[in-house]
Amino acid sequence: MTWKNAFSAQAKSCRDLGSSFTAELLDSFVTFGLPDGPIGARIAHWPGDISSNGASVPLRLAGALHGLVLEGRDTELAAFYPPHPLAEPAELHNAACAAISRHEAYIDHRLNDAPQTNEVARASALILAADALAAQTDLPIVLSELGVSAGLNLNFDRFRLVTPAGDFGPSDSPVVLTPDWRSPAPAPHGFTITERQGVDLSPRDPVAERIRLLSFIWPDQTARFHRIEAALDIAASHPPKVAKSDAVDWLAERLSEAHPGHLHLVYHTVAWQYFPAEVQTRGEAILAEAGARATTEAPLARVAMEADGQGPGAKLTLTLWPDGTTHDLGRFDFHGRWIDWSPPRF
User: Fold this and answer.
1) Helix (H, G, I), strand (E, B), or coil: what is residue 200?
2) Could you give the 3-state DSSP secondary structure of residue 319?
3) Which of 137, 226, 269, 319 could cross-link with 326 by S-S, CB 3.0 to 4.6 Å?
4) In terms of DSSP bridges, do strands 263-269 and 160-161 run parallel, antiparallel, or are they unpaired?
5) Are 181 and 234 in contact (CB under 8 A)?
6) Closest Cα to residue 61, out of 91, 95, 22, 98?
7) Residue 146: beta bridge partners?
8) What Rg do the C-alpha atoms of the chain give, in angstroms?
9) Is 320 left (phi over 0), alpha (psi -120 to 50) or beta?
10) pLDDT at residue 40, as a whole number
11) What is the pLDDT of residue 1?
12) What φ, ψ does residue 306 adopt, rounded to 5°?
């Protein structure tokens, strides 16, 4: 895929997900070209897949530019960012290219890092799945998350999910999830998390790297920005335990641990799809082996929220061992804007 195609495709995704600002920013590079100089040359000659299926270079650049604004490094660029009105494409492009020229070393360094959005609104799916599992097993839950970034969603039991059938989670939580419901909502049962850990190849510190994490939130999505700010505040008070490791290597070790009298919930949200095919195959085998060891007193569950090429949004599935049955839990918006929930039929 050419860089122009990658930028155009990402702009369309941003527009579809409600960010006209980021869409216009990325489209402006397609229309008017990459900036002159080393940054433009690096992007134009990026090795491998630069699209959202690969290195996500368009979002690396968008995050770098937003970082300049959030860190107060470039007031001239900030004048073109929300809450200021959306500028004409040529003006926005000129402002972005000028900022890139002024801060080449910063942008070049930021291009090394893949986007990590820490989309806490996806926690709606995790809350519903955990609640359904608790209702079925009547057991406290141990969490293992794959591809956690800063680990914000390891705290999903500390978020509040608002539903037409009643709210899940603490009533005083600063993170309030209010998705649109495209299906009947289940009544809350309640669940308890007793232990939680996650893994990432490049974990991020929710305190030391707060601004960097926020820079990947699209600038005109104010509610989303404030929601992740609140989740970062929770993470500062309840630091997630995140290992820096290959996800499947870590999973094999994690699943070797016994948790009698607990349900062990392994989950991933828009992460598994980025693992290499051979890693996915090994991970499936490790989960199947652990599932074969599971009992009704110590069951194992896997919740997966991943793109399946069908749309809309992502597909949510739940596999529960010892019987190993997989349940279709419906579809969820990638940014948690809506839910089409299908309760498991245990």
Assistant:
1) strand
2) strand
3) 319
4) unpaired
5) no
6) 22
7) 199
8) 21
9) beta
10) 98
11) 85
12) -140, 155
> What does the alpha-carbon distance between residue 119 and residue 290 come to, in Å, rounded to a whole number?
29
d(CA 114, CA 202): 9
- Parallel/antiparallel/unpaired status of strands 263-269 and 180-181: unpaired
What is the C-alpha separation between 271 and 331, in angstroms, rounded? 16
Can you tell me the distance from the alpha carbon of 289 to that of 271, in angstroms, rounded to the nearest whole number?
21
Per residue in 39-55, pLDDT (tens digit) is 999 999 999 999 988 89
Supply the DSSP string of 145-179, one letter for each residue: EES-TT-GGGGGGGSEE--TT--BS-TT-S-EE-P
Angle between helices 3-16 and 57-70 (to 10 degrees): 60
What sign has the CA pseudo-torsion 284, 285, 290, 295?
Answer: positive
Q: Which amino acid is at 252?
A: A
- Name residues of the chain where pLDDT drops below 50: none
pTM of the predicted structure, to 2 decimals = 0.93
- CA distances to 26, 34, 39, 64, 105 from 102, in Å: 19, 15, 11, 13, 9
Structure-block tokens of residue 202: 């490049």
Where helices occur in the chain by DSSP H, the ranges are 3-16, 20-32, 38-44, 57-70, 75-78, 89-102, 104-110, 123-137, 210-215, 222-237, 247-255, 277-293
CA 299 to centroid of chain Cα atoms: 26
Tell me, what DSSP letter sits at residue 183?
S
Single out the residue of 259, 121, 146 nearest to residue 195, CA to CA: 259
Look at the chain and count its residues: 346
Asked if residues 186 and 237 have their Cβ atoms less than 8 Å apart, the reply is: no
Query: 36 exposed, middle or buried (CB, 10 Å; 0-12, 13-18, 19+)?
Result: exposed
Specify whether the backbone of 56 is left (phi greater than 0), alpha (psi in -120 to 50) or beta: left
Counting beta carbons within 10 angstroms of the beta carbon of residue 248, is it exposed (0 to 12), middle (13 to 18) or buried (19 or more)? buried
Please write the tens of the pLDDT for every residue from 200-239.
999 999 999 999 999 999 999 999 999 999 999 999 999 9
Rounded to whole angstroms, how far apart are CA atoms 237 and 152? 11
